[in-house]
Amino acid sequence: MGMQGRMMLGGMGDDTKAYDHRIARRLLAYLLPHRRRLVVVLVLVVLAAAAANAGPLLLKIGIDDAICGGVQQEPQQPADQQAQPEAPICDTTQGSGGLLAIVGLVYIGTLGLMWGLNYFQVLITAAIGQASLRQLRNDMFAKLQRLSLSYFSRHPLGAVMSRITNDVDVISEFVTLGVTSLVGDVVMLVIIVGMMFGLDWRLALVSLAVMPLMWLASRVFSNWARNAFRQVRSTVGDVYGNLQESIDGVRTAQSFVREDRNAAAFEQTNRQNVDASVRAGAIVSAFIPVVDTISALATALVIVVGGMFVINGEMGLGTLVAYIALIARFFTPIQQLTRFYNQLQSTMAAGEKIFEVLDEPLDVEDQADARALPQIQGRVEFDNVTFGYNGTDVLHDISFDVAPGQRVALVGPTGAGKTTTVNLLARFYEAGRGQIRIDGVPLDSVTQDSLRGQMGIVPQDSYLFSGTIRENIAFARPYATDEQVVEAAEAVGAHGFIQRLPEGYDTDVRERGARLSVGQRQLICFARALLADPRLLILDEATSSVDAHTEQIIQRGLDRLMAGRTSFVIAHRLATVRGADLILVFQDGQIVERGGHDELLEAGGLYYQLYTTGFPGDETPEQTTATETMVLNRRMWM
Q1: How many CB atoms lie within 10 A of CB 392?
Q2: How far apart, in Å, are the Cα atoms of 158 and each of 20, 243, 334, 406, 490?
Q3: Both ends of the chain: CA-CA distance in Å?
Q4: In this predicted model, which residue has the larger pLDDT, 412 or 337?
C-alpha cells in the first residue's frame, strides 16, 4: 500500500471535518517539548526553499548579463521612419565568460546547499516526529492498561490494536513529512510569487490567470478523493478485524475444515480493500496530469506574451527563460498542498480515534482522597451489592460475610453471576449499589494498586506471556530468587514437568504459552499466584480444563496455595467444592443457597440438583463419602 493508502487507515465518518483545531492543538502539544529543534527545522526549510529557487534568477543573470552582455533590443521604429540597423536580441560579443563561470559555480553551490539543508532538515524532523510519536504511543498504552475490563468487552481487539498501530502511523507520516512539507511548500510559493512579480508584474498576472482553473480542479478532486479514502479506511478496518479473528480461531477453523472457506472470506474482504485503494489511487493519479495541463497552459501563455515583450525589446531573453523556469516550479507546491489537504483529512480522523481512547473515562477510578489499603487479614463483606451491564442488573442484593482464612466456593449455572462477583471483589468493576468491604474498609476508599497488590488471581484462561517459565512464575515478583521460583513450582506440583523440559525453567513458553499444554499452563499460573504471596486468593474455574490425573497433582498444590488465605473459588470440580468452608449457590444473579457441602445436600435444593446431575469433571461414584451416600439414600426414599 502506497503513502496515500497508508495514511487512510485512521477510520472516519462522513461528518468528519477536514480540519479540527482541537485535534490539531492536541497533536501539536506533543511537538512543544521539541520547539527549539522545530525552530531550527523551520529556518532550514526557509533557507532550502530560497536555495532551490535561486536557479531561475541565476538563469536570468547568466543569459542577460553573462551571455548577452546586458544588451536588449530597442523598440522597433515606425515604418515611415528611416530604417535603422536593428540591435540584436542577444549580443554575445558583449558576453563575459568569467561572469558565466561564476554563475555556474554559484548555481552548483546552491544545489549543494539545498541538498545539505534538506538532509539536516529531514534528519531533525524525523527525530522530532519519532520522539513525539513514542510519547503518544506510551500515553495510549498507559491508558489501555488503566481502562477497566468493560471497555475491552465493548471494543473488539482488532479495533483497539488499530488505534495504537495504524492511526499512530498516520500521525507519524503527517508529523515527519506533512508539516515540514506544508511549511516548505508555502515558503516556496511565497518566494516564487515574489520573484515573479519582481521580474515582471505583467507576466506574473498572466501566470496567475489560470489559478481559478487550479482551484476548481482541486475542489473537484478533493471531494472525489475524500469519498474514496473513506471507503479505504472502512475496508481496511474490516481486513484487520477478519485477520485478527481468523488467527485467534485458527484451531477451531482447522477442526471444522473451514480453512478454504475462511480464506475465501478473507480474500473477498481483502479484495474490497484493494478495489477501494485502487479507486483512491486512480483519483490521486488523475489529478497529476490535470495539474500538468494547467501548468502547460500557463507556460504557453507566458511564452506567447513574454515572447512578444522580448521581441518588442520590453524584456530580456534571460527574464523570459527565468519566468518559464519559475512556472515549472510554481505548480509543484500547489500540487503538494492539494495532497496535503487529503493527508490532513486522514490525520484529523486518526487523531480523533486516538483521542477517543485517551479521553475514554475510567469506569473504575481511584477517588482523590483514596488511601493505600494496609496489610489485610482477609475478612470480606458484601453488603446488598447490586451490579449491572448496560442498564440491566446481573447481580441483585448480594450479601455475605467471609472470615479471614475461609475458603468460599461459588457454584451455580453458567451466567448466574459468579465471575461478576469476584470481579467486583477485585474491583475490575464498581458496584452499582451496596458496598464491598475488606477488613471493614470500603473498596472504593482505597487505591486499586494497594488492593490488587494483596490479591492473587488465577483465571480460567491460564494466560502466559511470551518469555521463559521462570519469568512467568516471577511475573508479580520480578526480583524473586531462583530458589523462590523453584519452591513455588514445587509447592503446586509443577517442578516435575518443568525439569523434564529441554531448557527447564529457561524454556520459552512462546505467545500465550503455546508451547505448553493447558494443564501445564495452569500449574504455572498456580506457581505464579503462590510466589506473589497474596492475602486474598481468587480462583476462577482454575482447574476446569485439566484432566483427572493433573487435578490430583494440583489439588495438593491448591491446599498449599489456599492455606491461611481467604480464598474464593469458582468451582466446577467437586473436590474443590467439598473442601470449602462456605458454599454460595448462585442463580439468576442471586444467592439462593449458602452453607456447607453436607448441609446443602441435606437441604435438597439447587446444590443437590447440581450434585446429583454431576459437576463437570466430577469424581466417580466410588469417591462419594459415607455421609453423602447416607444423605442421597435418605432423599431417594423420601
Answers
A1: 7
A2: 26, 8, 38, 41, 39
A3: 75
A4: 412
600 touches 593 (CB < 8 A)? yes
Cβ proximity of 386 and 393 under 8 Å: yes
Residue whose C-alpha cell is 484451531: 251
Beta bridge partners of 381: 401, 437
d(CA 379, CA 528) in angstroms, rounded, equals 23
113 Cβ neighbours under 8 A, 6+ residues apart = 47, 48, 51
Residue with cell 512467568: 472
Identify whether the C-beta of residue 600 lies closer than 8 Å to the C-beta of residue 583. yes
SS3 content of the chain, % helix, strand, coil (to 5): 65, 10, 25
Whole-prediction pTM: 0.66
Q: How far apart (Å, rounded) are the C-alpha atoms in residues 282 and 204? A: 33
- The H or E element spanning position 437 is strand 433-438
- 8 Å CB contact between 166 and 10: yes
Question: How would DSSP label each residue in 569-588?
Answer: EE---HHHHHT-SEEEEEET
Secondary structure letter of residue 164 according to DSSP: I
* Nearest CA among 562, 510, 520, 568 for reference residue 545: 520
- What are the grid coordinates assigned to 29, written together? 502539544
CA 31/CA 129 separation, integer angstroms: 8
Nearest to 333 by CA among 295, 277, 360, 307: 295
Q: What is the mean pLDDT of the chain?
A: 77
**189: phi then psi, degrees, rounded to nearest 5:** -65, -45
Q: pLDDT tens-digit profile of 362-395?
A: 777 778 888 988 888 889 999 999 998 777 888 9
Cβ distance 333 to 188 under 8 Å? yes
Chain position carrying cell 461478576:
420
Which set of grid coordinates corresponds to residue 170? 498516520
The secondary element (H helix, E strand) that includes residue 603 is helix 597-603
The predicted-structure confidence for 210-254, as pLDDT tens digits, reads as follows 888 877 877 777 667 666 766 776 676 677 667 767 776 776 777
What confidence score (pLDDT) does residue 616 get? 45
